[in-house]
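re: that complex we talked abt at group meeting.

here r the seqs, copy pasted straight from the sheet so there may be weird spacing, ignore it
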Amino acid sequence: MAGAQGEVAETRGERKERTRRAILDAALDLTDGSSLVAISLRQVAKEVGIVPTAFYRHFDSVESLGLALVDESFDSLRGLLREVWLRSPQFGDYIDGSLPVLADHVRAHRAHYAFIARERAAGPARVREAIRHEIELITRELATDIARVPGSNAFSTEHLNLLADLIVSFVVTTAERLIEDPGAESRILAETRTQLRMLMVGALNWQTRR
Amino acid sequence: MAGAQGEVAETRGERKERTRRAILDAALDLTDGSSLVAISLRQVAKEVGIVPTAFYRHFDSVESLGLALVDESFDSLRGLLREVWLRSPQFGDYIDGSLPVLADHVRAHRAHYAFIARERAAGPARVREAIRHEIELITRELATDIARVPGSNAFSTEHLNLLADLIVSFVVTTAERLIEDPGAESRILAETRTQLRMLMVGALNWQTRR
DNA sequence: AGTTTGAGTGAACGTGTGTTCACTCAGAGT
DNA sequence: ACTCTGAGTGAACACACGTTCACTCAAACT
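got the structure back, here u go
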């Protein structure tokens, strides 16, 4: 395979990139319902349709494959955050505006979110560390975003960070639920909406108490 | 090994139970930083000091070993909940009373909590399902416990369940953090304390709005 | 004392594993 | 046109895997 086609015109770089993508996709597919630590280089190679040794032309271990998947998964996630932030400039309709966007993203990039959820807890040490780091960065970004919202200046920096952390944790949990039972999406969203409101009521009353 | 000792007096049942425990402990040990889906029956047997085939006298697969570990891990967790509930009859000091208990339990039963955290996301399908089910039961128990707290009767049943769910999710997240960085225990506890207060301020204001 | 039971043994099976090596042969650079 | 580069090949390695089977031999039961 991989070039056996009589198809014309494929540059060397294009060909390599195509195989690399195929490896990433195969890994996402194979780890679904399992984990990076449980799949083998040979399974991936077989799925892609290349010989095991060819794998090494692209990654030098399953772990480094995992790190590449972390990168592209968080590219997805940052796309989500950008979109959420664009369409909800108001603190008031923040929740109603954001939840459907989250649901859409999880549905569209299911494999990526499932990968993060799984490997965050059970991946190779380096991969877990990379994921933890990325989540930390995103939490900080969220904190500075919230700081720009009018009315949020009553929060101390410390409490702002804790609020952002609380929200991120909760979004991670919600994403996990959407992944594990996609059929219950509307119920999960309705429940999450109420819970986020409970949380926000706390945040709003908190700042007035400061 | 396993009976090679010149030690006297060990009944057949005791011997079997001792080996069974050794298998469970070995599995907890081997899955640490990895996952049930990534360990082999032979690794476990070697760790215990028995021949691979002897494993089948106790469990008929690694998956059923996993289900046994789910059972005993949640026995630990229920012990925690009982203790938390005993020493915090007041809604007010609920948080300050519970957090140190949680931290103690996580420290004392680290392997169990780490097991739940990992396999919840990445274990074999049956194991994930069992964990999800146990968490659901605990959430329901918490909801009925909260319902007995004076002043909580302003919550509708539905919102009571959502609050319980919110708390359980957050406790799971906190336990995960304590596991992944035990050295930061006091910082994590202080932060979690503030976040739980934010959440509780929301809950308290919520019920008065109903 | 004699028999039954069952936890643990050890050899064997077919298959999958990561990694090495020398190789092909088409696209890229001269 | 001629060489170089490097993605993909295929054989081979030493080892680990789950499962089967007939076995031992001490505790438990009669």
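couple things i noticed - Chain B touches chain A through 38 residues (CB under 8 Å). Chain B has a mean pLDDT of 89.
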